[in-house]
Amino acid sequence: MITSELPVLQDSSNEGGVADTMSLSMSVSELEDPMDPKGKKKRGRPGKPPAPNKKPRKTPAEKVAGGARGRKANGIPQTNGEGGEPVTLFEVVKMGKSAMQSVVDDWIESYKQDRDIALLDLINFFIQCSGCKGTVRIEMFRNMQNAEIIRKMTEEFDEDSGDYPLTMPGPLWKKFRYNFCEFIGVLIRQCQYSIIYDEYLMDTVISLLTGLSDSQVRAFRHTSTLAAMKLMTALVNVALNLSIHQDNTQRQYEAERNKMAGKRANEKLELLLQKRKELQENQDEIENMMNSIFKGIFVHRYRDAIAEIRAICIEEIGVWMKMYSDAFLNDSYLKYVGWTLHDRQGEVRLKCLKALQNLYTNRELFPKLELFTNRFKDRIVSMTLDKEYDVAVEAIRLVTLILQGSEDALSNEDCENVYHLVYSAHRPVAVAAGEFLHRKLFSRHDPQAEEALAKRRGRSSPNGNLIRMLVLFFLESELHEHAAYLVDSLWESSQELLKDWECMTELLLEEPVQGEEVLSDRQESALIELMVCTIRQAAEAHPPVGRGTGKRVLTAKERKTQIDDKNKLTEHFIMALPMLLSKYQADSEKVANLLQIPMFFDLDVYSAGRMEKHLDALLKQIRLVVEKHIESDVLEACSKTYSILCSEEYTIMNRVDIARSQLIDEMTDRFTHCVEDLLQEGEEADDDDIYNVLSTLKRLTAFHNAHDLTRWDLFGSCYRLLKAGIEQGSMPEQIAVQALQCSHYSILWQLVKMTEGAPSKDDLLALRRVVKSFLAVCQQCLSNVNTPVKEQAFMLLCDLLMIFSHQLMSGGREGLEPLVFNPDSTLQNELLSFILDHYYNDYGDIIKETLSKTRQSDKILCAKTLILSLQQLFNELLQDQGPTLDRTSSHVSGIKELARRFALTFGLDQIKTREAVATLHKDGIEFAFKYQNPRGAEFPPPNLAFLEVLSEFSSKLLRQDKKTVHSYLEKFMSESMSERREDVWLPLISYRNSLLTGGDDGDRLSVTSGASSKTSSVRSKKGRTPVHKSKRIEEESVDASWLRGNDTLQTPGALATPQLTSTVLRENPRQAADTHLPDHDSEPGSENDYMQMSWLGQQKIEDSRKDRTAMNYMKARNQTVRQTVRGLMEDDAEPIFEDVMMSSRGQLEDMNEEFEDTMVIDLPPSRNRRERAELRPDFFDSAAMIEDESVRRKTHTHTHALRHTA
């Protein structure tokens, strides 16, 4: 072993200023290169402590506070000289005010003076970092075994709180976690050349951490596992450095040995041999330490019941494999990551994927990952569909890295599983899939060759083939046809390709050159759709609808990119769009897409760039499109384009307005003449006359939607058509539908003028006459024989009655009162009849959706509405049949069936609907006993039979709430009622039975304790907690959380068992509470909360007050303390880690290797020292996996025996 002349090992007794020099050099002493052979000392445990005249260094805390750091004499904290608070190593690390290296150097100095006291300080550091208030004293350290110390510290835990530093919220504790990990890393780094080889420090620390990690207390297990994993990481770094030194020493030795005999220095050869031997000894020591941590801690804790502990283990093993791949990147360690890919918690699966990403990023490591890839590739690909979106994103990124490393690693089926995710509604998943798709299909493998080929073909862009491939991919995506989603998914990875609009227009406008295939009609349509989507994405700079939570504020860089892209696309398509419209003007689908492009223009470019001629060309093409097409989507696109170009903020508005007015004038004149001809010919009109009216009316209706055409008075012509159709009964349905719609637009535009100006009374009366006449026409159309006409009339009636209702006068518009319309009873009945006739089949779905929306708004009011509707039906039945109901009749059965269906609407989550269901029962009980029987108290109340209906909702009550409701029912019952068994009392009997089922006292648990006496007994060491017991624990804990969540006082009663810090009895209730607790803004326990206390909460408080007198405080307190210690040390021993393998048991049944065969860390030999004797076995093969039972063994000892000095 290496022991060079290091100041840390020399006598450090100095006088005067020498001590300061020693303190300054302390941080460097342990880091000096140990290769210097001078003054070597034997490795071993330190001898006697230094002489007492040694002057200790000042600690970081002393430097900050200006006093001496509180030391621990015999384990007792000492205050500084100024009488301040005790300053422990834990507090120094927690505050983080001093450099960690200085803190560690101070501890090393104290260790050299008295290693027992220093180690005691370190032990208490780990204990306090776990949140334990206890202190290990020097006599405990010297005379007690680890297990005894840990058991003693368990009893010192704060039983009123389950929090500990690693789980506490806030920036201070987040920083503490970082400081804690840094302290361990710096400690090993500073001690790596001497102290860690003294066979005392590391033995003690590893033994302590192994014991703590085996504890049933979550805080101990969590903190010690984190410390052990960070300790292991630091040791791996030390081992890596040793390996490098060994290689360097070997090279020096061989170089010296190969010299000629006369020039060879034998002394140097001896020194190098000695140095190599010491390095090998050190490496063996490090291997032993790492084996102790790995076998004693990792192999148990990577399967811990707590997800965060498992995540720590997987995260750190990933660091080891990346840091020292020669030693750890093999099947022996990769299998743990592979198995944990099946973990049930998303955060653990996420750590696995990120650990693997760090490995697959390095191309040089791919050969070592080949077997792992083959074994677990299917699982990784399947995780791209993980229910946790974060996990799915990282899985896709990992698959992308695998693809980059080896094209052959993924099959076509694997790739297709990722391809379709570009259409995912979750944008991060889609973007990750877009990156994969770009790497697989759209990345140019030889850009220079492709550019040369494009030049030979006369193309300005080399992306032609890639764009063709994009079109083909889009067309072959049979599951989706959302071009906007595809473009958004590829936007971050393929932006250069997607913005190559010149190449796209070349493919659309120019004839294919030699060697290029002609785009089919379907491919041209797809390319135009994709091109329009890329234009929208560039101009709007935000994802399409359905992706993301809304528009976010763009950064300055993003805003500049958006402006540049908008200018670029405007300058290009101002010239290209008229040509595209000219080529495809006969194709409605292509034209409708192309006409969306102008809405993304920067219209100032027309005037600023003197491009008015291109504007005229565009207007000419739009006019031709309007004249050629009558499809609604094409006409609406033309209308919208005119509306955008006519914006008053642009100078081109006058030019566009003139073109639009000319077009409307021509269409209006044509429409007027065609209407006259049609009305004159009447029933003798031919198809040409009908077509002329319909085509012109469709164009005018589309334009009237976006443009104010009231000055052309289209309402008059449309009204004449409608009246003629009603009188003659022979108007074509399409003309009637379009006339109704056009008249509707005309009325709305007139209303807009009224609201924007100051209308006269005559104007208001004129509009009222128009609206009244149109409503009458729509009402008459409800009886039309043509369904489209009736549906259109119904929709317009509903819209206009809403628009011209009393809300029209809101916002200071009282002057519009003459325009308010209220439907008379005849119109209301006709609208209702229309709904029943046309939407009866969908009525159930409508009511379900209405109930769903109502419940989302207010669950309690929704429940009150349901019970009220049932009460109304019951009252109607009483009026029909009299007080003596036939409970077997179909009418009663119908009400019960409706109640059963209402109960189903509450769903399966009883926690969310708890208060609503309880309120429903309360109102139902009050209704049942609302009236007394006039014949006397011995006869049942008239509404008592309603309890049979109410019993349909009993299954929706939580078990503990059934007793509360039953107690409320008993308040309305007399003693004689409970004894009656006649048939007329059967509703009461059946309802009581439905409440008592599962709600008897024997099965109830304490509301506040979170555990029953049944579950406090010691559980079997060979299995999980029984299912029925675990369910009780969860229900009771939810009960308690519900009461707190509803701002009620905690139920008094038997003294509550304090919260335990062990896993099962505290973790499951906490998880349930986190899942189901409703959010409240008010502070619990406030007066306002008490006034607004829920009925169910009040009932529970009243019931608990009745039981308060039976409490025996001292007896319960003593029992509580005993249960606490027993729960900490025994109850949760098994579920914590013995039976919590996260992957399914079926996947681990074939594990049959022992620890010694797979888990012994064997650092690789140096490059020139030795060769590996044989290859390791395939640890992914089923015959070579670890047997499940062997993994379950607890490891209470490690390789080195614990050595305590008395």
Explain this structure to me?
The protein has 1206 residues and is mainly α. The strands form two sheets. Strands 1-2 form a two-stranded antiparallel ribbon. The protein is flat and about 125 Å long.
**Overall 3D form:** flat
Tally of helical segments = 53
Strand order of the largest sheet: 1-2
Strand content: under 5%
Distance between the termini: 28 Å
Label the structural class: mainly alpha
Helix content: 55-70%
Major sheet? 2 strands, antiparallel
Strand element count: 4
Uncertain parts: 1-86, 999-1093, 1107-1159, 1166-1206
Report the radius of gyration as a whole number of Å. Answer: 41 Å
Averaged pLDDT, please? 77
How would you summarize what this structure contains?
Helices cover 62% and strands 1% of the residues.
Can you tag this structure with a few keywords?
1206 residues, mainly alpha, two-stranded antiparallel ribbon, two-stranded parallel ribbon, 62% helix, disordered N terminus, disordered C terminus, cell division, coiled coil, chromosome
Layout: helices, strands, pairs:
Layout: H1 18-29, H2 60-65, E1 72-73, E2 76-77, H3 89-95, H4 100-113, H5 115-129, H6 138-143, H7 146-155, H8 171-191, H9 201-213, H10 218-257, H11 266-301, H12 307-323, H13 325-328, H14 331-340, H15 346-360, H16 366-382, H17 389-405, H18 412-419, H19 427-442, H20 447-456, H21 464-476, H22 483-490, H23 495-498, H24 501-509, H25 521-540, H26 556-584, H27 588-594, H28 604-608, H29 612-628, H30 632-645, H31 653-681, H32 687-706, H33 714-728, H34 733-756, H35 761-781, H36 787-803, H37 825-838, H38 843-857, H39 859-881, H40 890-904, H41 914-928, H42 946-950, H43 959-970, H44 975-979, H45 986-996, H46 1027-1045, H47 1063-1076, H48 1087-1091, H49 1095-1107, H50 1113-1131, H51 1133-1137, E3 1151-1153, H52 1155-1158, E4 1185-1186, H53 1188-1191
Parallel strand pairs: 3-4
Antiparallel strand pairs: 1-2
Helix pairs in contact: 4-5, 4-8, 5-9, 8-10, 9-10, 9-11, 10-11, 10-12, 12-14, 12-15, 14-16, 15-17, 16-17, 17-19, 19-22, 21-25, 22-25, 24-26, 25-26, 25-27, 26-27, 26-29, 27-30, 30-32, 31-32, 31-33, 32-34, 33-34, 33-35, 34-35, 34-36, 35-36, 38-39, 39-40, 39-41, 41-43, 43-49, 46-47
Region (Disordered): 1-84, 1000-1038
Main location: nucleus
Protein name: Cohesin subunit SA
